[in-house]
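Whiteboard transcription, Tuesday session. T.W. wrote the structure tokens on the left side:
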């Protein structure tokens, strides 16, 4: 058999092979472009963090620094932005908000799912309506309430604001409760367990995937919250948090991006370490939340 005949025979055996190769090339090209597009800000931030003020002023953002051992920007960012106190405040807020949010949301979902009473459907619809209203549209009213209650420049007040009814968390727990049989509750009650016992001893341990999902979604949004932190924690010397502490390097005389980029890298380190330690739980929680949702 001649080479031409072999080639013709291979084409006959694998019709559309060339088309599949083209599609695969396009897929890889799209992935490379998306990765390149996503990494550019990170790469430019890393490069800028290691530049001296003169290098930053006289070179473009993608020009490599002369030395990767220039850590003065990191030291300056840590000291001038009071990042030590910012981390303490942020993690304190994060711990309180996550614990309270999970308890409040799961208990609300338990009541709405397990108890049939007049107004149950109305409450669910009101939650849905509240989720459709842009948060920024309610800020004037919320700010007036916080001001009247004396909760401006107050860490407990800010925590109370963030742990307020989280509609997304409630719906996530509702979806998981739908898949937990009511017979579990009935069996526990027949054995003498109270409703609090049913919730804390029987159902709450079964909600681990939902809890992980809420921890991820609420944790990321709370740690990165800038608008409300800037609005309700106005005294940045007493109540700095991670998301607002770098605002120190912005002012009417200009913005010191070399310090800001160094500070951004410092703020990423704790979250990166937590993610690397718990990445299996994070992926499982997100996958379970996606399936149930």
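and on the right, the sequence the group agreed on:
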């Amino acid at each position: 058999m001649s080479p031409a005949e072999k080639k013709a025979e291979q084409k006959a055996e694998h019709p559309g092979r060339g088309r599949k190769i083209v599609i695969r090339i396009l897929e890889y090209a799209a992935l490379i472009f998306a990765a390149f597009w996503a990494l550019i800000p990170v790469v430019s931030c890393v490069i800028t963090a290691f530049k001296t003020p003169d290098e930053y002023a006289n070179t473009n953002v993608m020009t490599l620094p002369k030395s990767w051992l220039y850590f003065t920007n990191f030291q300056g960012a840590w000291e001038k932005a009071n990042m030590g106190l910012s981390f303490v405040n942020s993690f304190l807020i994060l711990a309180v908000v996550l614990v309270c949010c999970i308890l409040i949301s799961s208990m609300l979902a338990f009541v709405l799912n397990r108890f049939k009473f007049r107004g149950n459907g109305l409450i669910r619809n009101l939650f849905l309506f509240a989720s459709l209203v842009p948060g920024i549209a309610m800020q004037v009213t919320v700010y007036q309430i916080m001001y009247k209650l004396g909760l401006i420049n107050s860490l407990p007040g800010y925590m109370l604001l963030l742990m307020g009814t989280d509609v997304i968390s409630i719906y996530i727990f509702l979806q998981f409760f739908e898949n937990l049989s009511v017979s579990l509750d009935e069996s526990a009650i027949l054995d003498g367990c109270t409703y609090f016992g049913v919730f804390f001893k029987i159902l709450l341990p079964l909600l681990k995937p939902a809890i992980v999902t809420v921890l991820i979604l609420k944790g990321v949004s709370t740690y990165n919250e800038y608008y409300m932190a800037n609005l309700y924690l106005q005294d940045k010397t007493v109540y700095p948090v991670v998301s607002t502490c770098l605002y120190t390097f912005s002012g009417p005389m200009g913005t010191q991006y070399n310090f800001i980029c160094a500070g951004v890298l410092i703020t990423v380190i704790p979250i990166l370490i937590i993610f690397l330690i718990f990445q299996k739980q994070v992926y499982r929680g997100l996958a379970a939340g996606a399936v149930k949702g």
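Someone added at the bottom: The chain has a mean pLDDT of 85.
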